[in-house]
Design a protein that fits this description.
alpha/beta; four-stranded mixed sheet; two-stranded antiparallel sheet; SKP1/BTB/POZ_sf; BTB domain-containing protein; BTB/POZ_dom
């Protein structure tokens, strides 16, 4: 004698006794719902409900679906007018499965809301996955946001497990992301090649990096660099080294964090202490102030780089 398959009822709000349709998940959880609600959010269900009902079928039809209850619950919750709260996703794979289910049932309005939730939950930790999912769903505004946050990935494009979530996108979308990362790197690296963007204030003109009477004076024959509107000045060796090294760091990782977590910044601070004059006038304080301006300018130039459409 075959064992009778047992089913269980979904938790609220999908346990309403006044329901007129049941969606049964692949793990045998029954979701009580209403034809009107499902018809409004999904043309697939709307067409399904217009089919003639067999007299042998129960008064309340039961429709088996291929989704697991952990996927069906957040999907239906987004369409329920009295749910009162947005669903949460345990993993980005769960979020991806809900997105695929919404596409399958052509729940376009819900699909956009899922995009907002995915960005809110996973953007910072899974920018590449969010980019890929956004490309697949046509969320181009989210794709641009995810591409921007992916700039924190150093050397994007090298073999990495970080690309695991991008297997479903086409080569064009992947190339757009890599091109964007590369162009942002070029723009960010160029910031340190001229400092004409610095404000022309007395505080800037008096910074130790180009005003040292010690290590700055032994830099005879060194190249000059434009400082604000003051002209081309020679900078200290330790600061010149910092500009070159931080530029390389930005080329590989064109974002604010590259400067905040920069190894070249720590080296510059240490080398500045080797000069009696730089150490005396707190060159590290001037370098910290400069980095604040540096970060602001990097943000500005990156904002001008657009993800190709």
């Amino acid at each position: 004698m075959s064992e009778i398959q047992k089913t269980s009822a979904a938790r609220a709000p999908f346990n309403n006794p006044d329901h007129d349709i049941v969606l049964r998940s692949v793990d045998d959880v029954d979701f009580h719902n209403f034809k009107l609600i499902l018809s409004l959010v999904s043309p697939i269900f709307k067409d399904m409900f217009t089919l003639p009902q067999n007299e042998s079928e129960p008064a309340v039809p039961i429709i088996p679906v291929t989704e697991h209850s952990t996927i069906l619950y957040p999907l239906l919750l987004l369409s329920y007018p009295t749910a009162g709260a947005d669903p949460t996703f345990d993993t980005i794979d769960d979020a991806r499965a809900v997105m695929e289910a919404a596409k399958k049932y052509e729940m376009d309005a819900i699909l956009y809301r899922i995009g907002d939730l995915i960005v809110a939950h996973f953007l910072l930790a899974h920018s590449l996955d969010v980019y890929a999912m956004s490309c697949l769903a046509g969320w181009w505004h989210h794709a641009r946001t995810a591409a921007f946050w992916s700039l924190e990935i150093e050397g994007l494009g090298r073999p990495s497990s970080g690309f695991a979530g991008m297997g479903a996108i086409n080569a064009s979308d992947c190339h757009r992301l890599l091109t964007y990362h590369y162009e942002c790197g070029i723009a960010a690296q160029a910031v340190g090649k001229t400092l004409e963007w610095l404000p022309s204030t007395p505080d800037v003109s008096g910074m130790q990096m180009w005003g040292c009477i010690g290590c700055g004076r032994v830099a005879f024959g060194r190249p000059t660099i434009q400082i604000a509107s003051f002209g081309k000045w020679t900078v200290t060796p330790w600061f010149q080294e910092y500009l070159v090294a931080s530029g390389k760091e930005l080329a590989a990782r064109p974002c604010e964090q590259a400067l905040l977590e920069s190894a070249s910044y720590n080296r510059a601070t240490a080398k500045a202490r080797e000069c009696l004059f730089c150490r005396t006038v707190m060159a590290h304080h001037h370098l910290h102030t400069f980095r604040t301006f540096y970060i602001a300018e990097v943000r500005k130039v990156i904002a001008k780089v657009k993800l190709a459409s």
